Amino acid sequence: GDSVTQMEGPVTLSEEAFLTINCTYTATGYPSLFWYVQYPGEGLQLLLKATKADDKGSNKGFEATYRKETTSFHLEKGSVQVSDSAVYFCALIPNDYKLSFGAGTTVTVRA
Amino acid sequence: NAGVTQTPKFQVLKTGQSMTLQCAQDMNHNSMYWYRQDPGMGLRLIYYSASEGTTDKGEVPNGYNVSRLNKREFSLRLESAAPSQTSVYFCASHRFYKNTEAFFGQGTRLTVV
After folding, report:
1. Nearest one of A58, A33, A46, A2 to B102, comparing CA atoms
2. A46–chain B Cβ distance below 8 A for any pair
3. Nearest chain A Cα distance for residue B43, angstroms
4. Partner B contacted by A32 (CB < 8 A)
């Protein structure tokens, strides 16, 4: 079935460091791809999305590019802040609309 | 615009008790979902409803039942709670187009003792 494999955490970084979280997917057809963020004690909220191959999603300094050839959607940020500490989830919506999520990556940014 | 509203936010149950988690959305979305979140396991789909009147099993449906009462509401019922059902439960809704995102409630933290 359709699935997402996400880099395991936790990840601990210093402020202004570069962040990358790997995400690969398995799906038939052409899924839409998403990154969600979950701050402590809250629900998930959309960070960015890409709906077709070669699309780049971006928001709050984060970017991810939909790579069909490598079935990947890696999340990157060039300079993280303490406020970026959260759990990040890669997700896809396949043809049957069953939203599927990765295991989540906990990111902690230290001042 | 409230989005997705879940009740209750916290609940403690004894083993064998039953309860219903409520979820309502005001965005006129067709699809609704129930997930559970456990440490190291990410989000696992329990049940989903592609449209009013339809429901389908997800990855971990055992021990749960659902009702899509109308387009707005999608409830999750635990008939006989077990400690293994201790988790954080999230409801989500979606407009049923692949290029649109799902919206999530704030979650229900359930502890079964």
Report:
1. A46
2. yes
3. 6
4. yes
Where does residue A10 rank: exposed (0-12), middle (13-18), buried (19+ CB within 10 A)?
exposed
Share of chain B above pLDDT 90, in %: 80
At A49, list the tokens. 């999305």
**Tens-place pLDDT, residues A25-58:** 998 888 899 999 999 888 899 999 999 999 999 9
How close A15 gets to chain B, by Cα (Å)?
25
Condensed to tens digits (0 to 9), the pLDDT of residues A64-97 reads: 999 999 999 999 999 999 999 999 999 998 777 7
Give CA torsion, residues B80, B71, B91, A96, to 10 deg.
Answer: 100
Within an 8 Å CB–CB cutoff, is residue A51 touching chain B?
yes
Q: State the count of interchain CB pairs (< 8 A) between A and B.
A: 56
Q: In chain A, what percentage of residues exceed pLDDT 70?
A: 100
- Model pLDDT for residues B40-83, shown as the tens digit of each residue: 778 899 999 988 889 999 999 999 999 998 999 999 999 999 99
A101:B92 CB<8 A: no
**Which of A31, A34, A101 lies nearest to residue B42, judging by beta carbons?**
A101
Tokens linked to B50:
């592609």
Helix (H) or strand (E) segment spanning residue A88: strand A86-93
Quick one: DSSP state of residue B31?
A: E
Q: State how far the Cα of B20 lies from the Cα of A79, in Å rounded to an integer.
A: 44
